[in-house]
Each structure stands twice: as structure tokens, then as C-alpha cells.
Write a structure and sequence with these properties.
It is built from 5 helices and no strands. The chain is mostly helical. The chain has a domain of about 45 residues.
């Protein structure tokens, strides 16, 4: 009796680059918000109205990005579950 060895490790290995990308994006967002906070607190920036408006504009533009990360994580988990279900169904 020769049983075929099933390897479902490939399903999870395909998502590793995506998870690493999400972690890198999260770290970059945190660092960029910290940098903008430090620039905004600088005395020469607060003295100039245009510079303050520019910093606030950049922070407002970047404000929407972190709200997308949980949605992307939920989609990745859903794709993983759908892939595993379809893999196990095809057995």
C-alpha cells in the first residue's frame, strides 16, 4: 500500500512574502508618523504657517493608510482559509 504524502506547506509558504510586506509597511508608517510628529514640533516649523500647514497636510494624507491594514490582514486570512479548504476538498 503506497500512500501519497500530502504537503500543504505550499499554501502557507505563498503568504509569507505578503505577511513580511505588511509588517514592513506597518513599521514604515509608524516611523513616518514619528518623523512628521518631530518635524511638526520643531520650533522653526511651528513659527512658519506654511510649513505647519504642509506637515498637517502630509499627516492628514497618511492618516487613511493604517486603517487599511486590518482589512488587508482579514483578506489574507480569508484567502488562506479558502485555499486550504479547496486543497483539502480536492483530496
Amino acid at each position: 500500500m503506497n500512500l501519497k504524502k500530502i504537503n500543504n506547506k505550499g499554501q502557507i509558504d505563498q503568504l509569507v512574502p505578503l505577511v513580511i510586506s505588511l509588517v514592513v509597511i506597518g513599521v514604515l508608517l509608524v516611523v513616518s508618523f514619528l518623523i512628521m510628529s518631530e518635524v511638526g514640533d520643531n520650533s522653526s516649523v511651528t513659527a512658519d504657517g506654511n510649513a505647519t500647514a504642509a506637515v498637517n497636510s502630509v499627516v492628514d494624507a497618511m492618516d487613511d493608510l493604517p486603517s487599511w491594514l486590518p482589512i488587508i490582514v482579514i483578506v489574507v486570512i480569508g484567502a488562506l482559509l479558502i485555499g486550504l479548504v479547496s486543497f483539502l476538498r480536492g483530496r
